[in-house]
Amino acid sequence: MARSRGLPLVFNGCVAEYLRGEWQQRIIAAADGILLESARGGIKGVGRGVHLDKMVWNYTHAHTSFPRLSTLESEEQDELNGRLATAQGAAPIVSYAGRFLLPGSERGPVARLFADLARLAPLAAGSEPVPHAAVISAMDLQPTEGWNKEHRAGHDAHLYAAAGLLRDAGVQQVVLPREALTDPRLARYAAVVLAGVGELRPAELAALTAWMEAGGTLLASGPLPAAQMRALCGAEPWQPDPATAAALAALRWDQIDATYDQYLAADPASGLPAGRHPFAEPQPVRALAGTAVLAHAVTGEDGTPLLPLLLERRHGRGRALWFPCAIELAWERGNGVHRGLARLVAAALARGAAPPYRLDAPRGVFSNLMEGPAGRLLHLVDEQNDRHDLPCRVAFAAPAGARLRDALTGAAIAARREDGVLVCDLSLTRHACLHLEPA
């Protein structure tokens, strides 16, 4: 024990999965970090396993106890997972337990990864993800696709979908445990996302209200208890009259490939992007005095409004935005094809929480913004890993005089100022890292 003094204490994520209750909490509290495989809960996904003050180390590839030769495909997957880990501030670990790497072309991908890490090291030293949106998880350690499917039921399904929707919209985010709602460090985040978290405890409700009054933007989705609905969102349950209820029941709201009988549409006066979008089963509500309705469930070519589907309630210098339906599940049900829905959510968030950057890129491009003494680094990684020359546009909230460079080569990147932001266009093949130098 004396020799280990001063060294970080790391535990394997499986321990937290199988040790329930008090012992699980004790281990999490004692550890400095968590060691996970990228396919089993690591930082490659939405950051499951990340706690407020914990670091995550992760294997870049699921190793095996069965001896086998490595392949070029395995090494390319290692490279991709390593870049995704690096993009979120983790330390990638390549494990060859049970795999044999013979000399040859298979060595190229991982060699490229660590060569780039060496080039990035001076700029990345001391950097951390730029805090913007915190997605709240009601569970202590979230499983990912490699774990049993029953873990994705209930709240976890909302968490997966909400994180995917925000990533599709290019929203800078991190997953935090529920305890963050009453932690003073929540003040670092401009936005909080609650999807399927359920009824808030009195202390959580009070802390969240105070955070909004200080300027925070809350985005909630899904049904809420009546008291919480009134306090946070300025709405109350509504019981439609029999004729209206019958009409609502007869109209479809969950169609994907057909014309919608009902669809979600932003109010023209809201300034949100126009479009027709599917939605999930709604909770009938009506807005109280002082609450704005930004989008409705509408029907017909003329867009006759039926129900409020996005409400906005001001709280001091901040606001609460609420979809009285699980909007993240509507996005996931369409397998991400409804990118307009993701853009609508991003635009709603931006009404109160100006994003540090905006990304317009094909689906499947992961982005994350890090900040350190050398400035800001925007990591872009194509998760499909086999596409070339993807057109991307990035708009940075940056002061006058800021400059852009390729973090790997040091070459200047052409950029222009539009409406107070710094904009650049680039062609992405697999990955890129942009260095935003301070003025």
Notes on the protein architecture:
- α3 (72-87) runs parallel beside α4 and α5 crosses α9.
- The model is unreliable at 39-50 and 140-155 (pLDDT under 50).
- It is globular and about 70 Å long.
- Helix content is 25%, strand content 29%.
- By secondary structure, it is of the alpha/beta class.
- The longest helix has 17 residues, at 108-124.
- It has three domains: 10-124, no CATH class; 133-350, Class I glutamine amidotransferase (GATase) domain (Rossmann fold), CATH 3.40.50.880; 357-437, Immunoglobulin-like (Sandwich), CATH 2.60.40.
- The chain has helices at residues 13-18, 21-30, 72-87, 108-124, 155-168, 202-213, 226-233, 242-250, 327-333, 339-350, and strands at residues 10-12, 33-37, 55-59, 68-69, 91-93, 99-100, 128-129, 133-137, 173-177, 191-195, 217-221, 235-237, 263-266, 285-287, 292-299, 304-315, 318-323, 357-360, 365-372, 375-382, 390-396, 403-406, 416-418, 421-428, 431-437.
- Strands 9-8-10-11-17-16-15-13 form an eight-stranded mixed sheet. A five-stranded antiparallel sheet has the order 7-19-20-25-22, with helices on one face. Strands 1-2-3-5 form a four-stranded parallel sheet.
- It contains ten helices and 25 strands.
- The termini are far apart.
